[in-house]
Design a protein that fits this description.
The chain is of the alpha/beta class. The chain is built from 7 helices and 5 strands, in the order H-H-H-H-E-H-H-E-E-E-H-E. It has a 5-stranded mixed sheet with strand order 1-4-3-2-5. It starts with a helix and ends with a strand.
Length: about 140
């Protein structure tokens, strides 16, 4: 026991702890409640992270678009980006986005189109490793 007393004597009390800085009254006075939900904060942060980050196409997706003769219009590209944003709002990580007769697999957090195909190729295909779909 004497050894413990010697150790305790080596430490000085913390001024903040002994001055009442952490008293329940002080904590209650500084604590503020907010009407903003966690979901609102998360959505705002996701929007903040993705704004200014355009939709990207992987090398593979670009090669598929070219080899399949798929030329996206500006309107289709806008709808694809809108679909990706909808998927992001729902918390989807890997999404199938259908636009007209085109199918896109998109990594939603990075806003990257992984692959693309037209309807003639999707009739017999099974889509795996996706956790959501958006029909836009």
């Amino acid at each position: 026991m004497n050894g413990l007393n010697k150790i305790a004597e080596q430490f000085t009390p913390n001024i903040a702890a002994t001055s009442g800085y952490f008293s329940p009254q002080r904590v209650n006075q500084s604590a503020k409640t907010s009407d903003i939900s966690f979901e609102d904060i998360l959505s705002a942060k996701q929007k903040e992270l993705t704004e200014g980050h355009p939709l990207r196409f992987s090398k593979h997706a670009n090669a598929r678009l070219e080899s399949r003769g798929i030329d996206l219009t500006l309107e289709q590209t806008a709808r694809l980006e809108s679909g990706v944003n909808q998927a992001m709002e729902k918390g989807i990580k890997e999404s199938l986005v259908l636009i007209d007769s085109l199918a896109f697999i998109v990594n939603v957090p990075s806003k990257t189109v992984v692959t693309a195909m037209d309807q003639t190729e999707t009739d017999r295909n099974v889509f795996t490793n996706i956790d959501g779909a958006v029909i836009n």
